[in-house]
């Protein structure tokens, strides 16, 4: 049981929630950019939330399902379409028949979407993760992006899906859907906590960061978003010792511009860390595109923790509801 890539997309890779514990070796965590969308995609099809998914950028691949499958598509809306003319909804489970073709003909919103299949993709782990590390050429599917002719086998199914398909239908959406309004609300407002070097900014630069918009530069990628806006200044241009950085770290470059580190960030950095995007805001940050604007708002640590706990509580509810729906369907 598998799917085949009929036509490759811009950058489609196998990812999971990341490869942790190897930063001391210079190996970054990597993993999906939008952890919320990836986890929900897995929940919708009855997988463990950390199972491997396909991360798809626009224009996306043309994908042929070689067997019946239960799938879900979450994250960005690239108008997913089955067999050339059947648009399907995102954020809900869908049963597709063998020889069904999935493609993404039109961008609507967001920057990357996620395809999950029931059981997950059968690819080898590298350092306890399925995620593709493109620079190392390891993990995922042969350590590279997906290309024409690639066949990705699925793990064994625990649910028989053929009985859910009507004879005249090539696919069947199931009757539940996830509401993501809270997570992606106010997509351009990004909350952050101050970093170690925030006090080194001049008072006017601190005010400029909070009162002005910053634009994502076209050269941005999975490693980092280069931001363009009012140049910020430090009170003293002292050299810093390289130290650990993470997904969401906001660094100040020598020219006064900012770089916002993303999933494929380096393990250490020597630029001033003036802030850190809070964890609950990383999903909507991951869905921003080049030329989109960002308005930074500062919050304290208790607020950041409260927002993260609330998001995790929501995910737990979604997971329980999806499992209950699938169990009722099977019974």
From TrEMBL:
Domain of life, source organism: Bacteria
Pfam family, one: CT_A_B
Gene3D superfamilies found in the cross-reference section: Cyclophilin-like (2.40.100.10)
Gene Ontology molecular functions: ATP binding; hydrolase activity; transferase activity
Keywords (A to Z) from UniProt: ATP-binding, Hydrolase, Nucleotide-binding, Transferase
Residue ranges constituting the Carboxyltransferase domain according to the UniProt record: 24-314
Annotated SMART domains: AHS2 (SM00797)
Protein's name according to its UniProt entry: Biotin-dependent carboxyltransferase family protein
Organism listed in the record: Paraflavitalea soli
């Amino acid at each position: 049981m598998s799917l085949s890539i009929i036509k490759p997309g811009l950058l489609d890779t196998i990812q999971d929630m990341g490869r942790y514990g190897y930063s001391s070796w210079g190996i970054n965590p990597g993993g999906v950019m939008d952890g919320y969308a990836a986890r929900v995609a897995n929940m919708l099809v009855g997988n463990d939330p950390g199972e491997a998914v396909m991360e798809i950028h626009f224009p996306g691949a043309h994908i042929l399902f070689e067997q019946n499958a239960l799938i879900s598509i979450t994250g960005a809306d690239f108008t997913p379409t089955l067999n050339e003319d059947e648009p399907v909804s995102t954020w809900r489970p869908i049963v597709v028949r063998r020889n069904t073709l999935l493609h993404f003909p039109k961008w609507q919103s967001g920057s990357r979407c996620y395809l999950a299949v029931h059981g997950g993709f059968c690819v080898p782990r590298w350092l306890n993760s399925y995620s593709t590390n493109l620079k190392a050429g390891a993990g995922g599917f042969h350590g590279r992006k997906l290309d024409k002719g690639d066949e990705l086998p699925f793990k064994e199914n625990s649910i028989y899906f053929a009985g859910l398909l009507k004879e005249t239908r090539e696919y069947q959406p199931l009757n539940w859907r996830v509401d993501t309004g809270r997570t992606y609300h106010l997509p351009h407002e990004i909350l952050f906590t101050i970093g170690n070097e925030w006090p080194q900014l001049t008072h006017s630069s601190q005010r400029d960061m909070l009162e002005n918009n910053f634009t994502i530069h076209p050269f941005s990628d999975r490693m980092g978003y280069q931001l363009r806006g009012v140049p910020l200044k430090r009170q003293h241009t002292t050299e810093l010792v390289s130290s650990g950085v993470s997904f969401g770290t906001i660094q100040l470059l020598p020219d006064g511009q900012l770089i916002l580190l993303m999933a494929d960030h380096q393990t250490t950095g020597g630029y001033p860390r003036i802030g850190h995007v809070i964890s609950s805001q990383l999903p909507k940050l991951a869905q921003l595109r080049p030329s989109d604007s960002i308005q930074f708002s500062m919050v304290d640590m208790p607020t950041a923790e409260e927002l993260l706990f609330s998001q995790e509580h929501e995910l737990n509810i979604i997971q329980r509801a999806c499992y209950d729906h699938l169990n009722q369907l099977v019974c």
